[in-house]
Amino acid sequence: MNTIISLKDIHKTYGAGELSYEALKGISLDIKEGEMVAIMGPSGSGKSTLMNVIGLLDTPTSGQYIIEDKNTKNLDDDQMSELRNHTVGFIFQSFNLLNRISVLENVQRPMVYGGIDTKESERRALTNLDNVGLLHKASSFPTQLSGGQVQRVAIARALVMNPAIILADEPTGNLDTATSTQVMNLLCKINKQGNTVIIVTHSDEIASYAKRKIIIRDGLLSKDIKL
Amino acid sequence: MNYKSNLFEVIRSMRANLLRTTLTMIGIVIGIGAVVAIMSTADSVTATVSSELEKTGLNKISISRRFNGGATRILDDSTIYFLTSLRIVGVKDYQGGMFVDSQVRDYKTGEATRIYLNGATESTMDNLNLKMLAGRGVITEEENQSQSKVVLVNGTLVKKFFYGDPEAAVNQTVKIAGASFKVIGVYQAEPFSRNANGIAPLRTLMTQPFESNGYTQIEAVLDPNADAKSVREQLLAVMLKEGGFTDEDKANFYISNPRQELDTFQQFMLAASVVIALIAAISLIVGGVGVMNIMLVTISERTKEIGLMRSIGAKKRDVVKQFLLESVSLTIIGGIIGVGLGILFAYTAISVINMFDSMPDFIFTISFPGIGISLLVSVLIGLIFGAYPATRASKLSPVEALRRE
Questions:
Q1: Whose C-alpha in B7, B72, B155, B269 is 20 to 30 A from the C-alpha of A90?
Q2: Nearest CB to A57; choose among B9, B16, B399
Q3: Kind and range of the H or E run holding B111
Q4: H/E/C letters for each residue in A89-131?
Q5: ipTM of the complex in this document
Q6: Which fold, A34-61+82-226?
Q7: 0.90 exceeded by the pTM?
């Protein structure tokens, strides 16, 4: 399998001078295409910062990050945006759906920025909603849905551009056990279809779905367990 | 970007914040409304006055006595005979006219007031376009030749002497310059006039009791397609030569220039309305600042949304577009409402003016250039005052934005 994510000695420092804070103190890590990885660690360990760097939402202070053979140092803001659009799909703890637009429009959103025409975008959005079992809710609004349903819509949105990497930040943090299981089974299914899935969590139960556990402590990689 | 679905989204978000949206729009509505109202009212005045002028004066050039000039008798039938013999191209006819500034006295009460009398004949009466209120609007050729002491008076005099009742004035007698005149008709007062005016047979005004020294003016009646400027130049040259003058300003006569007067008036109205509209447009800046303010509030409320937009692939310019579309929608809807209210206001203003008899009936005109410019300006305001908030939104770091609640 090809390496899709390659981090070499990644540092991330916030602020400057005496008040500066080093969230990542030199992390090196390779993730291969098709892996299902759980990034774990206590709060303040730097796992969220690591996830933001991987997801191109944040840039490292130093170190080298290569995603799909592209060195992120050479990318401008537009190219980073394109990668977030095509290559990475985000799933958030707080779902982050827009409440004033319909479920269908929420799922279509990434395609608006990806320049996909309306007809094709509607077709793809409906297919993805069908895959998460929410085709019948397409014209509903997020406020009319349960938490588990909202997260499944968010998953459909993350998948709609068919990205190679799915980044899930505490995807079940706001869900009860039953719906958590539903969401995790969905993520496993996506992984089986070939997508690389990275889950940030502090729950062992959630991490047990993954085949590889990376434990971050004080901004450093402390354990890398392959099951 | 998909503008259509974005636009629906913008409208939905406006409806969700209806009070805020409305308050923000008011500034734009008032600004645009004021500009449109001013431009439309000014256009109506210009159109009305122009049409009045065209009806009465544009096909005539008048040579009139100037009272600070010499006492030379230059305007009489011999002048008309002389001018006719020149056969100036474009002139159909010459007509002598008399304007007499006199005094009229109510026969019964003895009350007196100043009256301006215009001499007319059967043929020149037609050109006056009188609106008759009572009696007849005709002076017969026989009355003119026999120098009959008959007079038509306007509504203003009737208000003063006959309690405003035109019917009561007809066939009554008034004393003008000491002589008794029979009122044969009452016509509506001239536009913009507060004077007591009257019309009497031309020949009557050229005899006793009036001091007469030829005509007060001679009018050259032009062919419909005559070159008024050239006619005026020829008349001026001839009249200067005949009177022995070298300079138009020092001559004892004055030659009117109707076309130029109309042009000057129209230019003045345009300049005046543009200046006033610009002053009104200052309120648009205030409105624009309101839009900017609300856009800054919106962006800080929706910071997390901006973070989400960036995380699913929105480029900086997508964020800019999204918020510019919102600010422009706000100002353009405000602009459209403003145009509507402005037209309504102008229409009301014109209707109110038309209720006064002393004014001509104003023609209501919608200023289409005014509307076009207003809508353009409202788009520009949305762009200009939306630009800073939108750019600010696009510069937010995606991580910081996502972290905000």
A1: B7
A2: B399
A3: none
A4: EEECCCCCCCCCCCHHHHHHHHHHHCCCCHHHHHHHHHHHHHH
A5: 0.93
A6: Rossmann fold (3.40.50)
A7: no
